[in-house]
Design goal:
The chain has eleven helices and seven strands. Helix 8 packs across helix 11.
Length: about 280
C-alpha cells in the first residue's frame, strides 16, 4: 500500500504561516500522542525558530502513559515547552494557561521593562489535519469566545479570538501537511484515522497493526479477542473474524469486517493505551 499526500496544499499553507507568524508570540503545536513525530510537520521548526514553542500531545489518554512521559522529555530537551492533553476534556486543559504564561515569561518581562502592561499573549495553534486543533480551541476558549476584531498590521479577514484577558488566538492558522518521505509515517497516520479509510487497504493495515502489537504489546490481542498470538497475523485475523461473528453470506468469514473492527478498537482505546512510536 502506497500512501500519498498533496504537496500543492502545503505551499499555500506555508506562505500563509510565514505571514501570520510575524504577528504572534507563541506557537502552540498539536500532535497526536500516539505518533508525536509522524503527526507533525518538520517545517514548523524552521518557521517558528524565533518564537516561544509549546508542543501538546493531544489524545494522550489513548497513548501509553510511560511513553507519553518519554516524549514530553524528548521535546523539552529540544527547548520546547510540552504537555499532554485530551482536548475533549476541559479538566485536562487547566494547566495549559499556566504553561502558556511560563512559555512567554521572557516576552512578558520585556514588555514590563518597556512599560507595556497587560498586553495579551498572541498565540497560533498549528498542526496537521485531524490532530484536534478545532476541538482544542473550542474547549480551551469555551463557547463564549469573543472575536476582538482586526488589529493594526493584520491583513483584512484575519480575526483574533480572545481566550481570556491574558491570551488571544489567531483563528486562521496555516494548516501544514506531514511529509511522507518515509512510508511508515503514512501507515501510522492511516492507523490513527488521519487518512480516509475508503482509500486504504484496511486488511493490510490491520495485519501490519497485528504484527506491531505482537512485538510491542504482547498478550493484548490474546486477552481482548481470546486468540493465539503465536499464530501468523492472517490466522489471528481469521480467528477474530470467527469469534466476533464477522461473516458474509454463505457463512464465509469477512476478513475486511474483522480488520475494520481491530483498527476501530485501537482508535477508540478499547485495546488499551497504545503508542505506535517511541522517542
Amino acid at each position: 500500500m502506497n500512501y500519498q499526500w498533496y504537496p500543492g496544499h502545503m505551499t499555500k499553507a506555508k506562505r500563509q504561516m510565514q505571514e501570520d507568524i510575524k504577528l504572534i508570540d507563541l506557537i502552540i503545536e498539536l500532535t497526536d500522542a500516539r505518533i508525536p513525530l509522524s503527526s507533525r510537520n518538520p517545517d514548523i521548526d524552521e518557521l517558528g525558530k524565533n518564537k516561544a514553542r509549546l508542543v501538546l500531545l493531544n489524545k494522550s489518554d489513548l497513548a501509553d502513559s510511560k511513553i507519553n512521559e518519554r516524549w514530553l522529555g524528548f521535546f523539552r530537551e529540544k527547548g520546547f515547552f510540552a504537555a499532554g492533553i485530551d482536548s475533549r476534556n476541559k479538566g485536562s486543559m487547566k494547566t495549559i494557561q499556566n504553561t502558556i504564561m511560563e512559555a512567554c515569561a521572557e516576552k512578558v518581562e520585556r514588555d514590563r521593562k518597556r512599560g507595556i502592561k497587560n498586553r495579551p499573549i498572541r498565540a497560533m495553534v498549528v498542526g496537521i489535519p485531524n490532530v484536534g486543533k478545532s476541538t482544542f480551541i473550542n474547549t480551551f476558549a469555551g463557547k463564549a469566545c469573543a472575536k476582538t476584531g482586526n488589529k493594526p498590521g493584520v491583513t483584512k479577514g484575519k480575526q483574533w479570538v480572545r481566550l481570556n484577558r491574558n491570551a488571544e488566538l489567531l483563528d486562521t492558522p496555516g494548516i501544514l501537511w506531514p511529509k511522507f518521505e518515509d512510508q511508515s509515517v503514512g501507515e501510522k497516520l492511516a492507523m490513527i484515522g488521519s487518512i480516509k479509510d475508503e482509500i486504504l487497504n484496511i486488511e493490510e493495515l490491520s495485519l501490519n497493526f497485528i504484527i506491531f502489537m505482537k512485538a510491542h504489546y504482547p498478550g493484548t490481542l490474546a486477552e481482548r479477542y481470546q486468540v493465539q498470538e503465536e499464530k501468523e497475523p492472517v490466522r489471528i485475523l481469521e480467528e477474530i473474524a470467527a469469534l466476533r461473528g464477522c461473516k458474509k453470506k454463505g457463512n464465509e468469514l469477512d476478513y475486511e469486517k474483522a480488520a475494520a473492527l481491530v483498527i476501530d478498537e485501537f482508535r477508540s482505546g478499547r485495546l488499551g493505551r497504545i503508542s505506535l512510536e517511541q522517542p
